[in-house]
Structure formats: C-alpha cells, structure tokens
Amino acid sequence: MTERDFWELVEEVLGRTYGRSMACDVALPELDDMSSVEALAAGEEPRVVWNLLCDHLQIPDSRRWGRDHVAPPMPAK
C-alpha cells in the first residue's frame, strides 16, 4: 500500500474533511501517540497506519478497504 492509497481510503471510508481531521488529530498509542500524518512522515508503513487508525475508530473490516474490499498485502519485515 502506498501513501497515496492511504489518503484515497481516508477520503473514501471516512470522508474528505472528517478523515483528514482524524488523520491529523487522533493519537495512535501503538505508534507512540503519533497521529497518522506524523507516523507516515516518520516512515511507518501506510497499511500499518491505516489499520491502526481503523482499529482506533472501530471501523469494521467490511468497510475498511472501501469499495474494492481487497486488503493490500502486509509489508515485508
């Protein structure tokens, strides 16, 4: 998943205004309380950040991946 994919999902799943606000304002405890924006800037994998944001906002898997409903592969470690 690319950062562009991340932002497309933010807009599709959460809506442009609300989604961008959540990406900037929600502190993710699993990422040292960084926001999604901060985590991406720090080099975290977009798919990991997306999953943590969705978990925090309690977005079910059935809605998490937008209209395609296909989760991208996990990043290699």
TrEMBL record:
This is DUF3046 domain-containing protein. It comes from the Bacteria. InterPro entries: DUF3046.
